[in-house]
Amino acid sequence: MTVLKGAAFILAAMLCVIPCGVRADVVDTPIPKPTTGSVQRLAAFPSRNIPPRDVDVWLPPGYSDKKKYAVLYMQDGQMLFDAGITWNKQEWQADETAARLMAEGKTRPFLIVGIHNGGKRRHVEYFPQKPFEALPDDFRRQLLGMKRNPQQALFDGAVDSDAYLKFVVEELKPYIDAHFSVDTGPEHTAVMGSSMGGLISMYAISEYPQVFGAAACVSTHWPGIFTVDNNPIPQAFFDYMQAALPDPVSHRIYFDHGTATLDALYAPLQVRADAVMRRRGYTDAHWRTQVFPGTEHSEQAWAARLDIPLQFLFPPD
Questions:
Q1: N or C: which end of the chain has fewer CB within 10 A?
Q2: How far is CA 310 from the centre of its chain?
Q3: Nearest to 224 by CA among 204, 238, 206
Q4: CATH no. for residue 42?
Q5: Residue 20, pLDDT score
Q6: pLDDT for 230-249, tens place per residue?
Q7: Is 145 part of a structural domain of the chain?
């Protein structure tokens, strides 16, 4: 299957997939100033599993300890609320969209926990570890030698997404549960991300179905790298999904993609992912895949359709 067309497209794809919230290293970032609601910064949140990173907790307007909220854990948390502090001056507009949906009664009330990515470690923390370990040894060695650019490796060390998920589930979530007025069960807890963040969100609900009841995987980066030619990575993901996806009766999963820039790679791969979903028993009641023609791989594009996955994740009570 040949999808990439020439060096120019390959370069454009590389430039698009790499940034998605990536910083040169994990450094202090300004606290976002949301348009609506408020943000509490958990600065350099410590972990026994991964390097510390900032976490931004968005509270909707009128947040009150007298009622319980659902919780959405989002990847690339530095890209969610304030375009004034992001590398590309784009944001998900997560605060505006979430607050509007709640005010209109289209979702139940929820908080957003924006987990900053690990900078250079983004790829090793977001690449699902069990599918990676199922790849042939020689191919894994090739991947670990791949360059992000001439000066920097794509994989900044060994794939470590199992440790990242332990951080989220065993360290961050207990803190959120203890310090905010939230419902703690899986039916009230969802995970979401885009690109590589879509992959780790799929992995999270599969590895921890007792924690996450729903996942939204936006512009999921099924290739894992920059090409689909002679690339066994997507099949490793699909084999993992066939074996590990959670119960389709009690869990819900959302996928989508556009058709421009890097998203142009995804359509045939999403078809294969959808076939796995059907084989595992997922129906329209608990699974959705959507295509947005002409849309690109960017925070601006994801912001424009964010209302759709949010309503899927947190329908009104």
A1: C
A2: 13
A3: 238
A4: 3.40.50.1820
A5: 61
A6: 999 999 999 999 999 999 99
A7: yes
Mean pLDDT value across the chain:
92
Give the strand pairing for 38-45 and 53-59: antiparallel
Residue 113 has pLDDT above 80, yes or no: yes
For 123-177, the pLDDT digits (tens) are 999 999 999 999 999 999 999 999 888 888 999 999 999 999 999 999 999 999 9
85 within a domain of the structure (yes/no) = yes
In this structure, the strands spanning 53-59 and 252-258 are unpaired
Report yes or no on 1 lying in a domain: no
Does 77 map to a domain?
yes
Domains identified in the chain, total number = 1
First and final CA of the chain: distance in angstroms?
44
- For CA atoms 243, 246, 94, 263, the dihedral sign is positive
pTM of the model as a whole: 0.93
- Strand pairing category for 38-45 and 189-194: unpaired
Residues 6+ apart with CB under 8 A from 251: 186, 205, 209, 212, 213, 214, 215, 245, 286
- How far is it, in rounded angstroms, from Cα 186 to Cα 316? 16
Strand partners, 288: 254
**Which residue range forms the structural domain that includes residue 165?**
6-313
